[in-house]
Amino acid sequence: MSTESEATSFNVLRQQMLARWAAMAPRERQMAQVAGALVLLAVLVLVFIRPAWKSMQQTPAQLRDITTQVGRMRALADEAQALRQQSPVSPVQAEAALKAATDRLGTAARMNIQGDRATVEFTKVSGESLADWLGEVRAAARVRPLEANLTQSEPAHYSGTVVLGLAPGQASAR
User: Fold this and answer.
1) Closest CA to 162 of 146, 174, 151
2) Number of other residues whose CB lies within 10 A of the CB of residue 117
3) Distance between CA atoms of 150 and 136, rounded to whole angstroms?
4) Computed from CA positions of residues 153, 116, 93, 140, in that sequence, does the dihedral angle turn out positive or negative?
5) Alpha-helical runs (H) found in the chain
6) Whether 150 contacts 160, CB under 8 Å
7) Terminal-residue alpha carbon distance, the chain
8) Plot region of 39 (φ>0 → left; ψ -120 to 50 → alpha; else → beta)
9) DSSP 3-state assignment of 168?
10) Mean predicted lDDT score pLDDT of the chain
11) What confidence tens digit (pLDDT) does each residue in 123-169 have?
């Protein structure tokens, strides 16, 4: 029943609109057509053209970002390949290089070696110094971090421990 009443009210409404249209002067009809065309054009621009235009404007910046990320990934891959190709160092040499790198941090780092593992305890070490230390021990001593427990004690300063494997191939592949 409701479908029939909806169809009837639609027909009544349609008849009323056609009667109003017929009662309009030709100039009013023309103005109504122009207004309708303008509304249709505005909807088309807002729904279809503007989003596409915005995407086209953002594409160059996104491509630059992606290119930068790919460059970083290639550099990391090259570094990983270079590290794989390096010959292993003896545990004595690794221990000496690790001790030298840790000594450069002064009283902010304390090292304890037990068997094939070294535990380094840091106290308020700057983030830059910590990153340099990690790079140095990875390259010179060829040790791998097995476990790290670091917290930010002050802005840009860290405290905690890092456990390193002195024997080659100790770190789990991740």
Assistant:
1) 146
2) 16
3) 18
4) negative
5) 2-23, 26-44, 50-85, 91-103, 127-136
6) yes
7) 67
8) alpha
9) coil
10) 87
11) 999 989 999 999 888 888 888 889 999 999 888 899 999 999 886 54
